[in-house]
């Protein structure tokens, strides 16, 4: 019994499948024309859809030859030889310079600044579209990928930068401009920070110099005041010449402190006072060291200007795109044709179902 039932079901399935194939064959032109229409549509889209080309560059930290001038400029300040003029060690690090470049390149503020200078942006702006929308679209065309230690050797501190545009030439030009302007922007930032740092160094040395001058001046004025007071006491006491001081045993004491300076006598005190007032300030050795350092620093800053160097090195320069990023024409045509065939089959089945339903309705009447 069961075997007979299974045979009946199998026969019914075979009949349904044959009927299905027969109904599709009857509607073959529906399927064919639907497939053709979709194929033609996908070909048209593939041919006339906006083309996108992508230029890519791989960038790493600068080599020594790229920063020789920069290192020389920094070394000049360090060679002055003072705790104020000693430059931080990170300024000599290639990776620090490259980090400055990357920070600029990754900044949306910089990207917007750069894009607004391009003719491509200015043309897009003439279409009447808002600046905000144009920039958001262009931001999506910029791709910057950092290398992880898993993807590349630890020594390779690099990034991959790509820019997509409607033509190969434009994509390459925009990418070159993006990178080179980021380099200039970073160098300007570094130079301005250097100027501010040197100004701080100069101010520190000036402060120390002024402190020494004030101390020397205060010491001299204090000494003059002490001698003037001793001279007044000597005059009142009528002491004209030096009066030796003896101890209890009648021996002369070799030194006289400030309280007993009047014992030197009016003549000695007057001579010392006149000599002290006429003499120039006597500065310690440190004062002249600072003067020399300030002179050297001033000489450097007067001739200081941005030097030629790079904050990055190309591992691979911006490429000229050979293949379109999109549209992928072959994929679009194949996908469109397949979709047309599937929709054609579904349409044929739907039309067949409607026909069958109407026949049943007619038979039931």
TrEMBL record:
Top-level taxon of origin: Bacteria
Annotated signal sequence range: none
Subcellular localization, as worded in the UniProt entry: Cell membrane
Gene3D superfamilies in alphabetical order: FepE-like
Keywords assigned by UniProt, alphabetized: Cell membrane, Coiled coil, Membrane, Transmembrane, Transmembrane helix
Chain ranges passing through the membrane: 31-53, 330-350
This protein's GO CC annotations: plasma membrane
Entry membrane topology: Multi-pass membrane protein
GO molecular-function term, one example from the UniProt record: protein tyrosine kinase activity
Coiled-coil stretches noted in the UniProt entry, renumbered to this chain: 195-237
SUPFAM superfamilies assigned to the protein according to its UniProt record, in alphabetical order: Bacterial polysaccharide co-polymerase-like
Domain Polysaccharide chain length determinant N-terminal as annotated: residue spans: 13-79
Zinc-finger in keyword set: no
Protein name: Wzz-like protein
Species for this entry: Actinobacillus delphinicola
Lineage: Bacteria, Pseudomonadati, Pseudomonadota, Gammaproteobacteria, Pasteurellales
């Amino acid at each position: 019994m069961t075997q007979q039932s299974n045979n009946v079901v199998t026969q019914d399935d075979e009949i349904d499948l044959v009927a299905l194939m027969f109904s599709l064959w009857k509607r073959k032109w529906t399927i064919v024309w639907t497939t053709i229409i979709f194929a033609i549509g996908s070909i048209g889209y593939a041919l006339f859809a906006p083309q996108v080309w992508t230029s890519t560059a791989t960038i790493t930290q600068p080599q020594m030859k790229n920063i020789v001038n920069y290192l020389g400029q920094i070394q000049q300040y360090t060679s002055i030889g003072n705790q104020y003029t000693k430059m931080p060690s990170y300024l000599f690090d290639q990776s620090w310079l490259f980090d400055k470049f990357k920070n600029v390149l990754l900044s949306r503020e910089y990207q917007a600044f750069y894009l607004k200078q391009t003719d491509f942006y200015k043309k897009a702006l003439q279409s009447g579209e808002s600046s905000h929308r144009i920039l958001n679209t262009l931001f999506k065309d910029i791709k910057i990928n950092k290398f992880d230690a898993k993807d590349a050797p630890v020594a390779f501190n690099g990034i991959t930068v790509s820019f997509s545009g409607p033509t190969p030439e434009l994509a390459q030009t925009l990418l070159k401009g993006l990178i080179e302007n980021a380099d200039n922007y970073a160098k300007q930032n570094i130079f301005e920070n250097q100027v501010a740092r040197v100004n701080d160094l100069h101010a520190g040395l000036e402060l120390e110099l002024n402190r020494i001058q004030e101390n020397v001046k205060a010491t001299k004025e204090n000494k003059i005041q002490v001698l003037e007071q001793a001279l007044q006491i000597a005059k009142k006491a009528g002491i004209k010449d030096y009066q030796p001081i003896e101890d209890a045993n009648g021996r002369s004491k070799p030194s006289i402190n400030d309280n007993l300076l009047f014992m030197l006598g009016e003549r000695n005190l007057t001579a010392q006072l006149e000599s002290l007032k006429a003499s120039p300030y006597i500065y310690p050795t440190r004062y002249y060291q600072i003067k020399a350092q300030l002179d050297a620093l001033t000489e450097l800053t007067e001739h200081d200007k941005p030097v030629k160097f790079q904050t990055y090195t190309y591992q691979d320069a911006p490429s000229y795109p050979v293949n379109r990023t999109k549209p992928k024409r072959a994929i679009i045509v194949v996908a469109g044709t397949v979709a047309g065939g599937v929709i054609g089959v579904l349409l044929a089945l739907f039309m067949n179902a409607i026909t069958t339903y109407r026949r049943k309705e007619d038979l039931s009447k």
